[in-house]
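Problem 12. The chain below contains 112 residues. Write out its predicted structure in token notation.
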Amino acid sequence: MTDELIFADREGVIRRWSASAEALFGYTQGEALGKSLDLIIPEHLRAGHWRGYDAAIASGRTRLGEKPMRTRAVHKDGGKVYVEMAFSLVKDEKGEVLGAVASTIPPSGRSP
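Solution.
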């Protein structure tokens, strides 16, 4: 697992943002914490992202399990970031979903 760790609560608000996530996406922890995941999701991909996110939160499972998928994100400077992301749901001791965690591996870097 990489250390580009992002945790978002049930509503998609960023609650954990690692130093490596700062380096990859350009936002400091202070800039990212408390913000929506829309911070790094390209606008044209947001509707699909939120459909999948909400479905995973409601069902208690992700569509791909923990298998990484390649997707595009947005850097703070507006550039494209292509990443492999693996998603997992975080649950409490009763099995209720608290949110989702993503670990990322940049396969091909950024483009302006």
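Discussion. The chain has three helices and six strands. Students who got a different answer should revisit the alignment rule from Section 12.3.
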